[in-house]
Amino acid sequence: MLSIKNLKAGIEEKEILKGINLEIKAGEVHAIMGPNGSGKSTLSSVLAGRAEYEVSGGEVILNGKNLLEMAPEERAREGVFMAFQYPVEIPGVSTTNFIKTAVNEVRKYRGQEALGAVEFLNLMKAKMKQVEIDQTLLSRSLNEGFSGGEKKRNEIFQMAMLEPKLAILDETDSGLDIDALRLVANGVNALRNKDNATIVITHYQRLLDYIVPDFVHVLYQGRIVKSGGKELAMELEAKGYDWIKEEVKEAETA
Amino acid sequence: MADNLGILDEVTNSEYKYGFVTNIEMDTAPKGLNEDIVRFISAKKKEPEFMLEWRLKAFRYWLKMEEPNWQNVSYPKINYQDIIFYAAPKERKKYNSLDEIDPELRKTFEKLGISLDEQKRLSGVAVDAVFDSVSIATTFKEKLHEAGVIFCSMSEAIETHPELVKKYLGSVVPYTDNYFAALNAAVFSDGSFVYIPKGVRCPMELSTYFRINAENTGQFERTLIVADDSSYVSYLEGCTAPMRDENQLHAAVVELITMDHAEIKYSTVQNWYPGDKNGKGGIYNFVTKRGACLGNHSKISWTQVETGSAVTWKYPSCILKGDYSIGEFYSVAVTNNYQQADTGSKMIHLGKNTRSKIVSKGVSAGFSHNSYRGLVKVNKKAVNARNFTQCDSLLLGDKCGAHTFPYIEVANQSAQVEHEATTSKIGEDQIFYCNQRGIATEDAVGLIVNGYCREVLNQLPMEFAVEAQKLLAVSLEGSVG
């Protein structure tokens, strides 16, 4: 589904990603972990198409299409969804209205008719149940005055509504207490199926107790330095990142 | 942050879709302004003596005045001898029915989305269509007549209801008020007149559509709405003009009067030609709008969506004379490219327990300047006056300006006056968030701006709220690269 080859990118002439390689198949969940400043957020930003990041090499192919040539909104319409670490507030725009606009933009792109008010409402009800979100949240202005947990749950609800092929959860666990974390994780798990893939970017192993990954990758100094199964996350939790840093150093000096 | 990202930097032209010209034979006054022109206009309209006298007094007063320059806008000096003060489609006989209207004019209004055909109109909205200096048609007259409502052109009102005109015209905005009010009184050619009798709730929305067509002309219309005891009316005006390279002057006066327990809701969607992306052409929109809540418990509510005009200069105001009277002002003013707007409101509290509310939302893009200017004045005898003012500015890009000039004068200790103000920028983050959900940048800006203006748009009558939302998006088209 997603193939990242030798991806190099940075911001303001500073190279942060120094050749990322990653293959993700439909139905898989990949966790990307790493210490602060390793390039985790840069990777998600580059995949989503943030303008301030510059790609200097490599390629990213999503279902046969060159992702890097697309505008951010096209990527979204192609099925890339990013759950933001810090979802923005848009005062005066109701959450429902916003999601309806987004859903219909995506449908238009796929050659489907726009959803009418009733159909949309029915879809919304079904999804609300699936990810356990409160109706009152949806009638409020988008993210305005939402608590940290509410914002993250709203992200997962949008993900449910948009049914992406590739979901990127950017430090979705940051700032969540254990109950909120469980709710968010339940939502993500409910949306997993054999046709979509998920990238979970996280600092801590904690989230991976709830969203169990098929693969774990460690990002360090702009490269994936180690990959493994879910047990790698446990090892990181137990031992920290220092031993990885050591390994990298040894490899460099050898 | 926005500065180095470049997304908001680029400014291109926005589409003005009402810029066409109607080819029709016109009857025009010679260029320039003098007493003969004033007499010419009055004679054209076969006005009674009292009107001519009033016009002449206004004209002589105007000659002694100076054009104001305190407002935060700049434009080249207007040469009043280079303007045509009267232009009307030729062969204008009295129409016995709406079917007799010149097809060319009918087509013009159809193109603007204003059908003069009653069957095709949105049910529940009566329209007075003003083309250059004269009113072309007023729909649903009979139905309104049944309710006792008078809705006609100002010319017709002078003819058929001189007593009402004599009593109220100039009573809220006297010709001595300001330079443009004096000019308007001298040369105004038409406009709408509304009278709602006691106890009547007007059965439909009333609306006037103003269209400037002729070249080198100024449009000076005058609207007067009187709501007698316990009556209610909702009134809306819209306006457009062709795209031309030279500037055109529009100096209107609107007067509203409410008696005991009466209410007038006055909404404006102003979309005069704003000029091109380099600031060439466009309308100078210098308007005096004022309402007087004469009666106790009466209410006047102004709502305006201002997206057009090269230069806008207007302050819809309320004089709260009656005890317990209420004045409201809800405004969205959008400026793009080189547009300039200096707009706001005045709330003058005279009666006891009077209340006023001002909600102003400015949106600036391109190289434009957008100023809020407002006065809240509480007189000595206005016990327990309340005012709440909220004044927000939204900036798109870094080459535009937003300015706020609030004036508060309080002479009674029991008054409570609140003023809140914010200035914000549309964030790259907000736009990217929308992009990431599949919404393109232009649509994202429309969405964000509409959200920002929602409180004001909610005040508009349903039919027009949708139009206004689209208009906001169109006005800002090209304001982001």
How large a portion of the residues of chain B is in β-strands, by DSSP E?
Answer: 25-35%
Class from secondary-structure proportions of chain B: alpha/beta
> What count of domains describes the coordinates of chain B?
3
Q: How many whole angstroms does the radius of gyration of chain B measure? A: 22 Å
- The DSSP helix count of chain A reads 9
Strand share of the residues of chain A?
25-35%
State the largest interface. Answer: A-B, 31 and 26 residues
Largest sheet of chain B: 10 strands, mixed
The backbone outline of chain A, from C-alpha atoms, is globular
Roughly how many Å apart are the termini of chain B? 16 Å
Largest sheet of chain A: 6 strands, mixed
Spatial strand arrangement across the major sheet of chain A? 6-9-10-3-11-12
Give the % helix of chain B: 10-25%
User: Tell me, what's the shape of chain B?
Assistant: globular
Features:
heterodimer; A: 254 residues; alpha/beta; globular; B: 481 residues; 3 domains; 10-stranded mixed β-sheet; 6-stranded parallel β-barrel
Task: Write up what this structure looks like.
The complex is a heterodimer of chains A (254) and B (481). In chain A, a hairpin with a 2-residue loop joins strand 1 and strand 2. Chain A has nine helices and twelve strands. With 254 residues, chain A is α/β, with parallel strands linked by helices. The relative contact order of chain A is 0.18. A six-stranded mixed beta sheet of chain A has the order 6-9-10-3-11-12, with helices on both faces. A four-stranded antiparallel beta sheet of chain A has the order 2-1-4-5. Chain B has 481 residues and is an alpha/beta fold. Chain B has helices at 2-5, 35-44, 49-63, 103-111, 141-147, 154-160, 162-168, 179-187, 428-436, 441-452, 454-457, 462-475, and strands at residues 26-28, 87-89, 125-131, 134-138, 150-153, 192-196, 205-211, 222-227, 232-240, 247-250, 253-258, 263-270, 282-293, 299-306, 311-314, 317-320, 326-335, 340-343, 346-349, 355-364, 369-378, 386-395, 401-410, 416-425. In chain B, strand 3 (125-131) and strand 4 (134-138) form a beta hairpin. The longest helix of chain B has 15 residues, at 49-63. The model of chain B is unreliable at 1-14 (pLDDT under 50). Classes of the chains: A alpha/beta (254), B alpha/beta (481). Chain A binds chain B through residues 48-52, 71-73, 75-77, 81-82, 84, 87-88, 90-93, 98-99, 101-102, 105-106, 109, 141-142, 158, 162, and chain B through 5-7, 427-430, 432-441, 443, 447-448, 450-455.
